[in-house]
Amino acid sequence: MFDFGDGKTNSLTMDKPHPVSLLDTGVQGVISHPLDRVDGPLKVSGSATYSAEYQIDGLAHGVLVGAKIGHGKIVSVDADAVKSLPGVIDVVTDFDTFIKVPQQGGETGAPTQGVKEIDYFGQIVAIVLAESFEAAREAAQLLPITYEKSEGTYDFAAHRDEADKPSDAMIPAHYTQGDVDQAMTDADVTVDLTYITPSQNSAAMEPHASIAVWEDDALTLYSSHQMPTSGAQQLAKSLGISAKKVRIIARYIGGGFGSKLGIAPESVAAAIAAKQLGRPVKAVMARTQVFDATVRRSNTEQRVRLAAGRDGKLTAIGHDSLTSNLASEEYFEPVGIGTHFLYAGENRSITHDMVRLNLLLSGSMRAPGEAVGMVGLECAMDELAEKLGMDPIALRKVNDTQTDPEKQVPHSSRQLSRALDDGARLFGWDKRHAKPAIQREGEWLIGMGVASATRANMLQQSSAKVEIHPDGSATVSSAMTDIGTGSYTILAQIASEILGIPVETITMSLGDTNDPPAAGSGGSWGAGSAGSAVYLACEMLRSNLAKAMDVPEDSLTLKDGMAIGDNRSRAIGDLVGKGMEATGEIKPGKQEKETTQASYGAHFAEVGVNVVTGEVRVRRMLGIFAAGRVLNAKTARSQCLGGMTFGIGTALTEDLIHDTRDGKLVNRDLAEYHVPVNADVPQLEVHFIDERDIHANPIHAKGIGELGIAGAAAAVVNAIYNACGVRVRDMPITCDKLLDGLPPL
Amino acid sequence: MKTFQYERAASAETATTDAATPGAKFIAGGTNLLDLMKLQIETPGKLVDITRLPLGDIESRDDGGLTIGTLVPNSDLAAEPRVIEGYEVLSRALLAGASGQLRNKATTGGNLLQRTRCYYFYDTATPCNKREPGSGCSAIGGFNRILAVLGTSDKCIATHPSDMAVAMRALDATIVTLKADGDRRRIAIADFYRLPGETPEIETVLEPGELITAVELPKPVEGARHLYRKVRDRASYAFALVSVAGVVVMDGTTVKSAALAFGGLGPMPWRNPAVEAALVGKEASDATFAAAADALLADARGFGSNDFKIPLMRRTLIASLRELTGA
C-alpha cells in the first residue's frame, strides 16, 4: 500500500537523528500556538457528520443480537418468529463469517471469526434488519435463539492459578535480567506487594457504528475507526474480498480510547447484511453492546517487588502480572511496558501471564500497559519511599537514568527529574506532611501524592498528500483520523508553518482510505507519524517552490501566502501552475533501536478522604509533561486533561464487573459504570516543559495523548494514603474499601 | 421498542380512565420510563401523556402546609423559596439526585414512582422477579453492591433509587390521587409503598389508572434543623449507597422531636419509628446516636457485596445526628 515511486513522494526512514526541523525555521508563527480546533464550529453546531449520521437512500436499519449465554453453542435461530413483525425485513446471520471479537489495532488479518460457538455473554450472533430502528430493536429483542450451554470460566480469582505464558506481542511476555530473588534477599529495604486493577471500558461517547454500502463488488463503510487503513484490510480479510474493494470513511469519531483501533462486530454484520439485502445497512451498537461485546481493558493482578539500598537506589525491580483474555486471543495487557525503562536497577523481572476467561475480548484501552501498570509500580515506589524514610520525589530522582537499564542505549530525551522538581514547586509539595493522616479540615482528611509519568513513544509508517492550489490555498489529505484529539488542527498548523499558507485557507481531508494510507490514531503515535508525513510533503513542496522562484531553498521565506527570496516576492499560488502536490511518507527506522524513546512527566494530586464515609474527592491535580515539541498548546493540554481524568476514574470509580456465575456483565450502562463526571474532576493544572526530540521524527514531537493517564491514578492513590493512612491496593478505591481502616467516630 | 399507542390526556379524569386499561401507563417527564422502554423492560401498550394537565402548581394551604402539583419539575421544586424556607431537606435531596438536565424533566409524581436500579432488573437476559414475576432473583447470590439490606425478601433485594422520596418520607408527605372511578384518595407516604414480599413487581398501593395529582406537605416543623446526606460513588450522577434525611428539633441538649428517613437501604424510602424513639426525649450524645443506629440496623442483612452498607449507614447516621443536634 505504501508504494509511491512517482517522483512526487518525499520518504524518510528514521535511521538517523533529524537535528533540524523546518518547524523551527518557519516564520508563519502558528506552530505550537493554542489555535482553536478547525473542526470545532462544525462539531458544536452539529454539522460534523459522524458515521451513523449519513443520510443514504434505501437504508435498512440493523440491530445486533447478542448471545444470552456465557459459553456454549447455538442450536437454532428462529428467524421466522420475528420476520412477520411489522417493518421487519430479515434476520441475517453467518455463523462462519461474523466476527467473534473485534480486531486488535494495526493487525492486517481478520479477527477470530465464527459465532456459532459462544465464548462470552453478549457475543454478537445475528443482525435483525427492519425499515425502522424501532422495529429492528423490537425484533432483535424477541428473536428466539436456542442454545446449548456448557461450563465456562468466568472467575479470575478461581482460575488465577491456571495462568499461562502468552506469546510475545507488543513486548516480550517474560523478561528477566540478573537475579531479583537474590537481590531481594540481599537488599537493605524491600517491598513485595500485590495490586489489583479491574477490567475497564473505554466508554467513548459515540458507540461503534457502521453503514455498509455496496456498489457491485466494492464496499464503502461509513464507520467509526481510529485506524481506517488497517481497518479496511481487516474488513476485507473478514469478508474474503480484496482490500482494494474496501473503502472506510471515518471523518469524525466521537472518541475511541483504543476501543475503535480494529474493526468491531457491527462492521462485518452490516457488510454481510447489506450484501444479502442488496441495500445499504446501518448498524449502531447499543450502549449495552458496546460494554458487552467490543473490548475491555483486562483486569490485572500485579506483584511488585522493589529492593533498594538505604540511599534509595534500586537494586531490583520485579513486576509480575496476571491479566486475562479469551482462549483464542494472544493480546495481553502489557502491564510492565513502562517498568522496562522508567527506573535504573540491575536485577529485573517483568513478566506477564494470562488467565483464560470466557469474558469479552481484552485489548488496548488508552495507554495499554502504563495506565494500570503504573498503578502497581508507582504505588510500590510510594510504599518503598515511606519504608526508606525518603521523600517520594527524592526516591524517584535517585533512580532516574539517562540510559535504558535493559537495552543499555540512551534515552532520546528525558526530563523526568526536572518534571518532578518543577511540578513539586508549582504544586506546593513542600506543604505535604510526610506522615499520613495529619491534615484535617472538618470531616475531611487531606493528603498529597505524586507519581512519575511515562509513555513509550512510537512512530508508525504513515503518508499524507499536500496540494497547493493556484489560488494559494492548500489541501492536506491522509487516511489519518481525528478522534477528538485535534489532528485536523495540528496537521493544518504543520502545513501552514512550513508553507506559509494561513491555516484558514488549508482544507483538511482525513479519515478516508481513498487518501494516502496512514497508521491512524492509536498509541499516541498519530501526531508524530501523520505530522511527519505532512512535514515531508511540505518539505518537498517548499523545495519545489524555491525552484519555481529560482532561489536557493535556504533563502526562501514563505509567509502569509507569499514567497519571498532574492529581494523578490510572489504569491505562492502564482508559483504552482495548475497546482502543485507532494506526498510525504515517514517510516520508523534504526533510531527506534538506537535510542529508547518515551515521553515523561509527573503527576501531583491532593485529595480529601471523608473520615465518616470513606468517600474520596480529588481537590486538585497538577500534571507536568515533556513530550517533545508541543504542536498546539490547547489541544495538547486537552489531551492531558483527558488523561488525568481517566486517572481519577482508574483510582476511584471505574470497575467493569462480570457476574462470576455466568460471565454476564453486570454494570453495562453509564449510570452504573462510573466514569468521572464534572463534579469529580477538580481544578486540573497542566504544564509543559519545552523539549525537542531529534531522534523521534522530523517534527521533534513525541506522543502526548496517553502520557496524561500514565501515573495519574497512582498519584491519586498515593494521596489517599497520605490523607488517611489507609493503603488500598485494589482499584478502584471506593468508600467501602477505606471504611474499615478509618478511625472510629 | 415495542409499538405503543400515545394519547394526550384532555383532563385528569379522562387520563385515569384511559390509563386503567391493561398495559397502559402515564408518562410525564419520561426520564425513567423511556429508558426502560428502550431496553424493553417496560413494554406499555399505551402511554397517556399527562404533561399538559394543570397539575404543575405549588400552592400554600390554609393549614400552613404546601401542595405540590404532580407535574412540578424537580428543578423547580428544589428552587422554590417556600420549600427552601420550610422544607430544606427536600430541596437538598432533590439537588443531590440525578443531573441538572434530568431534574429539569423529572416530575414530582414520577420521581416517587422510579423503578429500581438493580443491575439485573435492567438486563432482560437475566431472571428478575420484579421484571418477570416468578423468574427468580439474580441479585441474590450475584453482584449486589447497590442493593438493599432492609425490607428484602427471598424474591427481591432491590432498592428504591429516589432521593426526593426519602425527604418526603421524613416530611410525612401525603400523596393525593385520582382514581379511574372518580374517587380521590389521600395516601400517607408511610402507606404508599409496599415491601416486595412474594410480589416484588407490585411496588405501591396505586390501582390501575390511579393518577398522582399532588403531594401534600404538612406545615413546616418549627425550629427544626434539616439535613440530607447522601453517600455515593461519585460526586454527581450516582445513586445513593446510603442516604439520610433528617428533621430534628432540639430543646437545649435534649432531642425534642426527630424525623429520619433513609435511602439506599431498602425497597422503599425507609423509616423506622424505633430509631426516632431512641432519640426523642434523650440527651444528644454518641450513646444516644449509637442506640438509634442499633435500632435502625437491628434487622439489617447484607448479601455479600453490599455488606458494607451496614457499617457505612451506622457511621453516616451518627455523623448526621451530630450535625442535626449540634452535639
UniProtKB/TrEMBL annotation, chain A:
Where are the bilayer-spanning segments? none
Signal peptide extent: none
SMART domains named in the record? Ald_Xan_dh_C
* InterPro entries attached to this UniProt entry: Ald_Oxase/Xan_DH_a/b, Ald_Oxase/Xan_DH_a/b_sf, Ald_Oxase/xanthine_DH-like, AldOxase/xan_DH_MoCoBD1, AldOxase/xan_DH_MoCoBD2, AldOxase/xan_DH_Mopterin-bd_sf
Domain annotation Aldehyde oxidase/xanthine dehydrogenase a/b hammerhead: ranges: 45-151
Q: What is this protein called?
A: Xanthine dehydrogenase family protein molybdopterin-binding subunit
What organism is recorded for this protein?
Sphingomonas mollis
From TrEMBL, chain B:
Q: Which UniProt keywords apply?
A: FAD, Flavoprotein
Q: Which domain of life is it from?
A: Bacteria
Kindly give the PROSITE patterns that the UniProt entry links to this protein. Answer: FAD_PCMH (PS51387)
Q: Which Gene3D superfamilies match?
A: 3.30.465.10, CO dehydrogenase flavoprotein, C-terminal domain, Uridine Diphospho-n-acetylenolpyruvylglucosamine Reductase, domain 2
Entry keyword annotation includes tRNA processing: no
FAD-binding PCMH-type domain span = 1-222
The record's annotation in SUPFAM superfamilies points to:
CO dehydrogenase flavoprotein C-terminal domain-like (SSF55447), FAD-binding/transporter-associated domain-like (SSF56176)
Name the UniProt record assigns to this protein: Xanthine dehydrogenase family protein subunit M
Q: Which species does the entry assign this protein to?
A: Sphingomonas mollis
